[in-house]
Amino acid sequence: MDIRIDNLQGRAIQALLQTHLNAMYEHSPPERVHSLDHEALRHPSITFWTAWEAGELMGCGALNQHSPEHAELKSMRTARPQVRKGVARVILRHIESAARDKGIKRISLETGPHAPFVAAQKLYTSEGFVDCGPFANDVLDPALSNVV
Q: Which residues, 6 or more positions from 2, have their beta carbon under 8 angstroms from its beta carbon?
């Protein structure tokens, strides 16, 4: 799998991000959706990666750096045909490695606590993430599970 920093210009990644946003709005109240669109993901504090194999988009993920030692995982999504093939785990490990190379010591993320997010919860737990309180400028939100 080829994982690379992406400029978010391609049709395939824009379609995958739209699928991601649509799912977040389908499974969460609008005021509790913290996913970023492709324009917001271009912020200078964010590095965005895509994973490719044989010219096919496999998935994506981003890292939003809040401080020199803390960043937030954002926009993790596997393309539908690739679900349950380990793509998200490979992307997550790549992002963690890149974060360590930058000196980042803590990576946090938010995910939903209910059924549509169970696969994500299992992935993050299996990779050592644990529940935590709000981080950065967030406030406690019962509709989210915060993990670090």
A: 51, 52, 53
